[in-house]
């Protein structure tokens, strides 16, 4: 098998952060605001390749994963390079996908996410950027948190607090449709980010 470094060099991203090409050994599984994420087909690992302007995050995210090693709610880390990290591939659905596919998010999932975050805090971290696409309910029902690059920021992050509030006030209620289209959910996320939902200010 090619080294992770060789695999990373097959991923070509242009100046507008468009993905131009990548090796046949990789399968694209996610796109974020700073990276493309691939499953390495022959393994259970994921390689996160940062956009050219975000390569500095690779080292930071790798260091945070190192601090979290041994906590089962976070992927293990296997390699880091100047523009990539290699972590466990998590088979499952992000909370965003759970809502758009109509898969139930239960109160015990919420408790388990709280617990996972408390374990990170106990290691001196400040869990931040906790949003619907950074939390995965794995196929075996376990909770996995990904995208930990901002866990060392000092600024207070209200996102998880607000998500829990929305869960209690709306999702949990009988009237709430358990399946919402991605278009609508993205629109709600957009309004939230702009600070346009008064009781959920960031
Ligand atoms: N280890 C993994 N296993 C399975 N899917 C993953 C994994 N890592 C990332 N993904 C998928 O790829 C998407 C983007 O990954 P990630 O959140 O790490 O990128 P990002 O650019 O840092 O995101 P953000 O926009 O939140 O800053 C995730 O929302 C998820 O759907
Ligand atoms: Mg993310």
UniProtKB/TrEMBL annotation:
Transmembrane segments: none annotated. One of its GO terms (molecular function) is kinase activity. InterPro entries: Kinase-like_dom_sf (IPR011009), Meiotic_Drive_Suppr_Kinase (IPR052396). The keyword Transferase applies. Keywords: Kinase, Transferase. This is Protein kinase family protein. It comes from Viridibacillus soli.
